[in-house]
Amino acid sequence: MERHEILEHARIVNAVVESRGAMDTTEVGPAIAQSWNRCVRDFGLDPVRDEPVVILDSRELKDRQEPLESLRAIAQGEMATLYQQLSGSGFSVLLTDREGVVLDYLGDPSFSEAARQCGMIEGALWSEQYQGTNGMGTCAIEKRPLLVHHHEHFLSRNVGLTCSAAPIFDHEGRLMAVLDASSFSHLAQQHTLVLVNMSAQMIENRAFLCNFRDHYALRFHSRPEFIGTLWEGALALNEEGHILAANRSALFQLGYKKHADLAGLQLRDLFNTGMDALLGRNNQGWLNPVALYEAKRGNRFFGLVQPPEARGSVLSGRASRQSVPESPPVGEDKIIRLSELQFGDQTMEHNVHCAKRVLGRDIPILLLGETGTGKEVFAQGVHQEQAGGKRPFVAVNCASIPETLIESELFGYKSGAFTGANREGRRGKILQANGGTLFLDEIGDMPVMLQARLLRVLEEREVIPLGGETPVKVDIKLISATHRDLKELVAEGRFREDLYYRLQGITLNLPPLRERGDKRELINHILSLECGERERVGLSKGALRQLESYAWPGNIRQLRNVLRTALALCDGPEITIYDLPEEICTQAPRSETDDSAGSSKETPLSALETAERETILLNLEKSRWNVTLAARNLKISRNTLYRKMNNLNIRINKEE
């Protein structure tokens, strides 16, 4: 800042402070005005002060980090995901303790040096007492998400920053840490604040579940698809059903203001069920939500009960491939062989045939396909076919790990290799896969600087961890996957040509769901997997028709989620169109195949007509095709029903 700009900033700050709220502070807002007052009256700060940033030495920093080691481990994955979302826009992502000490830092290369100069490094103290109004320090005092943009900072040296910060609380509502994303952006990034707040809530939820991993956890929401997201409520319970703790979302959904309000309550005080009954309803596994009704207001929720031993690695916080603690879908953890991926589609038949031909040979496999087409499942099938499940299968998503972490993630590191490294060192993913299969998903997103190291590993069959000197021999089956055009990336200089040809032992294209010729068989197969051991649920003709005709931009992953939610919502022996998402029902089927008499041409039905047809068919079946009885149940005349049946191509196939 120029000298006159610094003085003008100081003048505005002092004017707001001296007004004691009398002047209009709309431009900075009441929270910023209150913070400026604290800076002057409580901390004796001067907006033009330019003293060095307070930075703890390594021993002091370690003393701050160790008590929060578990939280930091959980936060690592979310920080990486947040960084990936903001990557390339000049942001850094920071985690501080409750007193504003920076514990962990991820920085965009374009921002890192400037951030270091202004004190955004591990060990720096960013409390209001030392740094004035700023995202991290002021958030810790306000205890709510906060955006501090440019001139809202108290100290003139921080005026160029834009900081979005959100608090992270423990299970008793006490502040544990603050998550922050900062940049030198000229714009106030409200959408960044939303992302930061979502990430902070995910960290908080995961920390809650991890803290009570030795107890039962009831995870619930009024919408089953929200279980496993940041909006889910979570209750920690003992075996007798006593409530031990609740996360913030649980308090909000159940209408409680404070954590202490739930102290001493039993599960039955909140829902229309006790612990024994709830566990009995979950005896088929904890992967399918069950309906719960609130004891006081009667609101319906869906919940999953997870026993202590069921969570384990899901809550470790170290997995880089998942940003949320999702319950693993039914059937995804079963052993999958290549033969189980064949349902009649010719392209998939060809893929399976080719994959089997290269089993046991040093030939890498490259899988191409849109997101959600089942590339990792196919890779697991190859692994099971070759190793029989007796050797490791290690998956790495190259797109979800920031450039600053991916090298240590892949190659591992020795003790003391860099600041913040685990004191015992860490085995990288390549070494973890030794003797088995290494699956590199989204290989097209691997940083160019690492591509040469990976190529060397593939050529020499050995890896050297960061900070190490002695190479370690490795024996891996490499399977790579991407949704990108690698040839185009090679032409643009973003992917090494020599690595491209090294990966391209055999290339298999996985077709998108909309182009598969075995769509009906695949839908029924996934539905069967989702049902698990519970009673088989079918699909009505209308529902199946809508599922078959939908374009499925999210492919098999989207299909699985839709069927899982529909299973939770359906009340009868089959899923109907009423159990499907609106976006699927509003897309009319591409063609109608009813061979109705008198139909000279077939036109697609609208979503409303499809729903009406489904209702009429349901009533006709219930009345054993007695049109008079069906019309009475539908509260319409017999002639009206006949007319509707004719318009909707419903043919009477049973005598009245």
Describe what this molecule looks like in 3D.
By secondary structure, the chain is α/β, with parallel strands linked by helices. The chain has five domains: 58-199, Beta-Lactamase, CATH 3.30.450.40; 212-311, Beta-Lactamase; 338-511, 3-Layer(aba) Sandwich (Rossmann fold); 512-587, Helicase, Ruva Protein, domain 3 (Orthogonal Bundle), CATH 1.10.8.60; 596-656, Arc Repressor Mutant, subunit A (Orthogonal Bundle), CATH 1.10.10. Helix content is 39%, strand content 15%. The strands form six sheets. The protein has a five-stranded antiparallel β-sheet with strand order 2-1-5-4-3, sandwiched between helices. It has a five-stranded antiparallel β-sheet with strand order 8-7-6-10-9. It has a five-stranded parallel β-sheet with strand order 12-15-18-11-19. A hairpin with a 6-residue loop joins strand 9 (290-293) and strand 10 (300-306). It starts with a helix and ends in a 9-residue tail after the last helix.
